[in-house]
Amino acid sequence: MPSERITFLVEKFFSNRCTEDEKYELMQWANVATEDELAELLYHSWKNHEANLEMPEEMSQRILASIFHKEESIEEENPTWEEEETPSRFWQMGYRMAASIAVIVAVGLFAWFQYNTVHQRNENRLVQVKEFEKNDVLPGTNKAILTFDDGSKVILDTSKNGNIAKQGATNILKPEKGQLVYQATETPNARPMYNTITTPKGGQYQIVLSDGTKVWMNAASSLRFPMVFVGKERKVEMTGEIYFEVAKNTKMPFKVSTNGQEVEVLGTHFNVMAYENEKSIKTTLVEGSVKVSKDNHSTILQPGQQSKVGFSNGIFRTINDVSLEDELAWKEGYFQFNNTSLDMIMRQIERWYDVDVQYIGKVPDEHFTGKLPRNTNLSNVLKILSMSEIQFKIEGKKIIITP
């Protein structure tokens, strides 16, 4: 027979008066108790408290149906039983009731442990959230550096709006924050002069080239281009990620060169993502058509298609029915994830928030789906990601991740 202490704890459990420590003590005893001890204790608890037990109706109906079914089976197997309750019948009834009580107690303890687990996880997450907010990081902004042909530089995010410079036959204007416009007053006869715009981590910028082509630059990107296009083609060089809306000119194809890949168009809209810490160069076509070439391979993309060229192996692939919304979310001011791996998400966060990511142990194999504005603080992004089993910590300009 269980001790008075255990009997006392079971009484308190059924009357919902157990403390957390008492519930734990009861659970510890149940782990080592014999079946006979459980049956005897739980049977008497049932008799004392069956009218006060609370459980979902569906579950109680299943338990009752199971008990009555077993009773019918036992009575059929023992036709010599009398109506009065014999000791043998009493204990068989007791075991059946004990089985029911065991289910109820198991459900109660399971719910309690589930509650404690979720409660502890929520408390841990609240601690994380407070840490995020205390060590918060602001989102990226419109900032870039313009490097002229002679090597001189202008920090565009701190320069005043208006006329930035005049080089040769080209005026360089900054009509508003985050935008640069090249206006060619005449076609130069001399060699073309090149400019380079570079966005740092945590920066973005827009440019209108001298031919009217519009350019959106993501963080950690660069574009080298002539101030005025001359000759038989319009050629630019890029790194990082850039979206192009190319002004149509059938006599001068527009060519984008990056890491040995070349994209050739006459006039169309497309996105090129060529970060060196990604696995491949991705070229995504929005409208028109483009020719993508690398080494001895080439392909013609149609709207909604994407080419992938591996950095390490040079493997050329064409993907149909790409989500343009996902690929261009950065340009529209969003993070958009569609079953996206954690490491891919964190690379985007590194570039946009100008932080470094450090993993403690193995990189968690987690994938996320969702949409967030890019103009939000880093804490708000990590609050969402921390709803998983992953722990995040901000230390200065570093994010530390543990499974």
From TrEMBL:
Pfam families: FecR, FecR_C. It comes from the Bacteria. Residues 334-401 form the Protein FecR C-terminal domain. InterPro entries: FecR, FecR_C, Ferrdict_sens_TM. Residues 196-291 form the FecR protein domain. PANTHER family: PERIPLASMIC SIGNAL SENSOR AND SIGMA FACTOR ACTIVATOR FECR-RELATED, PROTEIN FECR. This is FecR family protein. It comes from Arcicella rigui.
